[in-house]
């Protein structure tokens, strides 16, 4: 069904969501057909009865329906339970596919109707900028200098197997096909294929039975390049050039090409060692080998196809001397192509690419090249050959042949090189300190480096950086840890030499607390040839040393640490060598776990303001790397709004941000959705960087007042959050009992352990499973707890109406505060206390259960009341009805999964400590329910 244009032009016309409802009904019906055929009529009847009862419970708040639902779930056999869990889990997956397709459909309908540019598009951003008086040269300079980098990370919230993703990709393609005009036979064939792919899903194992390896994570990430990034990123560049031409160019003029690769991909997968003992030098080499193979496969396929397409003959049209020379140097000697220089040149390019692929580790080249050729020295040489083809075509009546394939291939070469994505290295500061302590001790320089105070450490490290000799000796035996860390850094040097400087260029230090934490990595780079002294006495640094400030105290120290670091002459000289740029990473997860949602958000904002001031004083360009997760509690929420809510001066065309876990699948498993998400990043960065700041003193005074109120509220929220999580006796026991954290830790979600240490302390638990667990039990506590206490007490300490008016003013005129409330509103829309109360019954101690759950429910009520009093909205997501409907629609299918999960956890835990009593089917059912709930909530980790 095609959405009629009239539905957009006339809001009172056709139901714009009718096609979505139809798609969901269709996929639900197909799943039902498969369930009936595969599991039998009885199981189908059970699932359908549970579905209808859950819908009735949600729609009518029917207490009888709740009792019926509870009773039905309790009497299910183990076999029925697994089938019901799988059915509702797969329905969540299929509903997601339908929603994504509807987003694409609505966007296309807007474009077909000639609607105004939508917010979040580059077209919209350019219109705003031009209206604000921002000139063409300013926009051009932005794109010349910008770096916008989504960084894919592997974290233990990715609950989908690649086999499932592949099947779902096919279903999405077939569903999109149904919007086209199809003959009855074509529609029937489409339906048959859809049913077969749904059946494939049902017969495919949803869970991993073995622990995910780093190599598996690398392959999973690479699948998104094939689906989305390799074609959509170059295509996005073309769209943006056309948008700029539309706003700033001459009518009918060809868009000006932007040569700079302003959007580049990054990755942590294979280079992030923090808390992951499975990452080492071998995984780094493997990551780059697989990345290079992926991009070179793409280049080889496109070059081969170009050879077939560019059949241009010199008997018809001339070519440039440079192109003729490239053709003459080719490995092709066939007389049949003597007058086809483009084909001959491409045969030579293909041969050189194939040689390059083999040299970089690829072994599965599908098409044999013609003749022998030397590999390219680097990707720039390959791009230069492609430019020779482009220049010749443009000069000889062939400009229309450049697009789409040749121009796209050249653009891809500029963006991806031979490395595909820059691999970041990350390690915790504690390990660096231990390695340096051993090196200093065994070199006879300092017996106990770790015992020195900060000034002494920094002094010793600076003295070492001034030394021409190394601490390391090949004739001394070192610990495994020291040997491994030095080997990894040496591998980084080799990788850069082999794949290019962009292959690895960043070294991130977790738990940066002092200047010495940064200097230690400089010394380690010096030990491994990554920091070298030039003939003129200056130093050259290969890997930018990037601090990661994570906890609340770390964020509060961030500006001071960077000010002291950049004041050091050696460091200042190294920054100059980096183009007067320096990156700082901010961690959202640990600061949230440490201080709660509101305080974490505020401390991040304050840290950014402090860094802007320090960097401006030093004359260095600041690039912030935002370590955002999926949940709001981990910095999640719409990226577009988050970037626009950044303090002025923190973006400036430079931004990196992590894309983690199942959020990667949500954003990039569909090519069109992926392109839209990439465009959102560019549009937001463009707006945040170039929109003129208000110069009115009244506006500045207003902002200062808003910030003062926020500081007071943050202090109160921090105390409320800490009082519950860290100061309430028994809270840890409550958390480990009332959430599926123990079961999540057992699930083969990723290669990284759920906890940094083998303890039950909240402090040692990784922030990702912490947030994931609260999502599963539908409390999502890290995304809202403390807000009600903070706002309520602040209002009570003054004149109520006056203070409420101030908060409403903040919501209306301060993007930071508006975004904070919007994200919390989304979390509260997904929170369900009735479901959460079922999980609380897993806590055996009735007194503990009642005491803590009562505090949580009271804070939830306070938070809702305070949010409503500020925004005036009594319904959740009143400003985003599409998302509100989406969440509401899927609750009826999530509820049974949550109820079943509680029942299965009860069964599992009742025998978990009795050898031989654990039922693997029950265990598997829990993990299937975790998958289904995660898919239904979408941003869980």
From TrEMBL:
PROSITE patterns: PEPCASE_1 (PS00781), PEPCASE_2 (PS00393). One of its GO terms (cellular component) is cytosol. The active site is at residues 155, 593. Its cofactor is Mg(2+). It comes from the Bacteria. GO terms for biological process: carbon fixation; oxaloacetate metabolic process; tricarboxylic acid cycle. Coiled coil: none annotated. InterPro entries: PEP_COase, PEP_COase_bac/pln-type, PEP_COase_Lys_AS, PEPCASE_His_AS, Pyrv/PenolPyrv_kinase-like_dom. SUPFAM superfamilies: Phosphoenolpyruvate/pyruvate domain (SSF51621). Homotetramer. Belongs to the PEPCase type 1 family. This is Phosphoenolpyruvate carboxylase. It comes from Pseudoduganella namucuonensis.
């Amino acid at each position: 069904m095609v959405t009629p244009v009239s539905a957009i032009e006339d809001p009172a016309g056709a139901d714009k969501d009718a096609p979505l409802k139809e798609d969901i009904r269709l996929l639900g019906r197909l799943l039902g057909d498969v369930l009936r055929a595969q599991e039998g009529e009885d199981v189908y009847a059970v699932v359908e009865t549970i579905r209808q009862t859950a819908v009735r419970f949600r729609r009518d708040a029917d207490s009888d329906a709740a009792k019926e639902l509870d009773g039905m779930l309790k009497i299910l056999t183990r076999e029925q339970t697994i089938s019901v869990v799988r059915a509702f889990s797969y329905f969540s997956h299929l509903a997601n596919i339908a929603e994504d397709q509807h987003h694409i459909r609505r966007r296309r309908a807007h474009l077909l109707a000639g609607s105004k540019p939508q917010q979040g598009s580059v077209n919209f951003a350019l219109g705003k900028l031009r209206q604000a008086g921002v000139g063409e040269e300013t926009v051009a300079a932005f794109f010349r200098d910008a770096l916008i980098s989504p960084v894919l990370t592997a974290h233990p919230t990715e609950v989908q197997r690649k086999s499932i993703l592949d099947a779902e990709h096919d279903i999405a393609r077939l569903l999109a096909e149904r919007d086209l005009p199809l003959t009855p036979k074509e529609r029937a064939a489409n339906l048959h294929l859809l049913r077969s792919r749904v059946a494939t899903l049902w017969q495919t194992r949803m869970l991993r039975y073995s622990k995910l390896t780093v190599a598996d994570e690398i392959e999973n990430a690479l699948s998104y390049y094939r689906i989305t990034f390799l074609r959509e990123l170059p295509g996005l560049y073309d769209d943006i050039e056309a948008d700029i031409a539309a706003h700033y160019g001459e009518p009918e003029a060809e868009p000006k090409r932007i040569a700079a690769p302003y959007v580049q991909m990054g990755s942590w997968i294979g280079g992030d060692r923090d808390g992951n003992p499975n990452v080492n030098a071998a995984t780094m080499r493997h990551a780059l080998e697989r990345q290079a193979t992926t991009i070179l496969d793409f280049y080889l396929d496109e070059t081969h196809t170009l050879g077939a397409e560019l059949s241009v003959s010199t008997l018809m049209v001339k070519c440039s001397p440079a192109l003729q020379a490239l053709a003459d140097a080719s490995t092709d000697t066939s007389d049949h192509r003597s007058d086809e220089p483009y084909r001959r040149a491409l045969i030579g390019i293909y041969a050189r690419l194939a040689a390059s692929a083999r040299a970089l580790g690829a072994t599965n080249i599908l098409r044999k090249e013609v003749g022998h050729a030397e590999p390219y020295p680097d990707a720039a040489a390959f791009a230069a050959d492609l430019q020779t083809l482009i220049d010749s075509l443009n000069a000889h009546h062939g400009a229309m042949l450049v697009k789409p394939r040749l121009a796209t291939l050249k653009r891809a070469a500029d963006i991806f090189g031979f490395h595909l994505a820059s691999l970041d290295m990350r390690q915790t500061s504690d390990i660096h300190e231990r390695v340096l302590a051993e090196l200093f001790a065994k070199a006879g320089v300092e017996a106990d480096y770790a015992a020195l105070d900060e000034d002494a450490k920094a002094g010793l490290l600076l003295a070492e950086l001034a030394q021409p000799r190394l601490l390391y000796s090949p004739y001394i035996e070192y610990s495994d840890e020291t040997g491994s860390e030095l080997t990894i850094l040496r591998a980084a040097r080799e990788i850069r030499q082999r794949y290019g400087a962009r292959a690895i260029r960043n070294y991130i230090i977790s738990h940066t607390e002092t200047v010495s934490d940064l200097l230690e990595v400089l010394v380690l780079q010096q030990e491994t040839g990554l920091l070298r002294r030039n003939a003129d006495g200056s130093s050259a640094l290969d890997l930018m040393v990037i601090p990661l400030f994570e906890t609340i105290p770390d964020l509060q120290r961030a500006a001071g640490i960077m000010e002291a670091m950049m004041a050091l002459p050696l460091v200042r000289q190294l920054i100059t060598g980096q183009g007067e740029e320096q990156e700082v990473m901010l961690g959202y997860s640990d600061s949230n776990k440490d201080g709660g949602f509101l305080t974490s958000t505020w401390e991040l904002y304050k840290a950014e303001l402090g860094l802007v001031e320090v960097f401006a004083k030093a004359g260095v360009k600041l690039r912030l790397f935002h370590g955002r997760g999926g949940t709001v509690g981990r910095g999640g929420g719409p990226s577009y709004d988050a970037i626009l809510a950044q303090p002025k001066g923190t973006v400036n065309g430079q931004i990196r941000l992590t894309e983690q876990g199942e959020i990667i699948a949500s954003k990039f498993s569909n090519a069109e959705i992926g392109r839209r998400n990439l465009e959102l990043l560019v549009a937001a960065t463009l707006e945040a960087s170039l929109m003129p700041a208000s110069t009115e003193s009244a506006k500045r005074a207003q902002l200062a007042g808003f910030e003062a109120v926020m500081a007071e509220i943050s202090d109160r929220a921090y105390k409320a959050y800490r009082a519950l999580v860290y100061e309430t006796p028994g809270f840890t026991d409550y958390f480990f009992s009332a959430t599926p954290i123990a079961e999540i830790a057992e699930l083969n979600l990723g290669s990284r352990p759920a906890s940094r240490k083998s303890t039950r302390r909240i402090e040692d638990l990784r922030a990702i499973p912490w947030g994931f667990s609260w999502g599963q039990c539908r409390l999502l506590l890290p995304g809202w707890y403390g807000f009600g206490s903070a706002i309520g007490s602040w209002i009570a300490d003054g004149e109520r109406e006056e203070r409420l008016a101030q908060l409403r003013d903040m919501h209306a005129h301060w993007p930071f505060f508006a975004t904070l409330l919007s994200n919390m509103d989304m979390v509260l829309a997904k929170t369900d206390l009735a479901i959460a109360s079922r999980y609380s019954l897993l806590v055996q101690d009735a007194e503990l259960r009642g005491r803590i759950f009562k505090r949580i429910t009271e804070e939830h009520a306070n938070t809702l009341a305070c949010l409503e009093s500020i925004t005036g909205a009594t319904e959740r997501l009143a400003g985003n009805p599409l998302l509100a409907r989406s969440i509401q629609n899927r609750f009826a299918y999530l509820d049974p999964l949550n109820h079943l999960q509680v029942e299965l956890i009860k069964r599992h835990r009742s025998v978990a400590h009795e050898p031989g009593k654990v039922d693997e089917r029950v265990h598997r059912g829990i993990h299937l329910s975790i998958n289904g709930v995660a898919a239904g909530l979408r941003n869980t980790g």
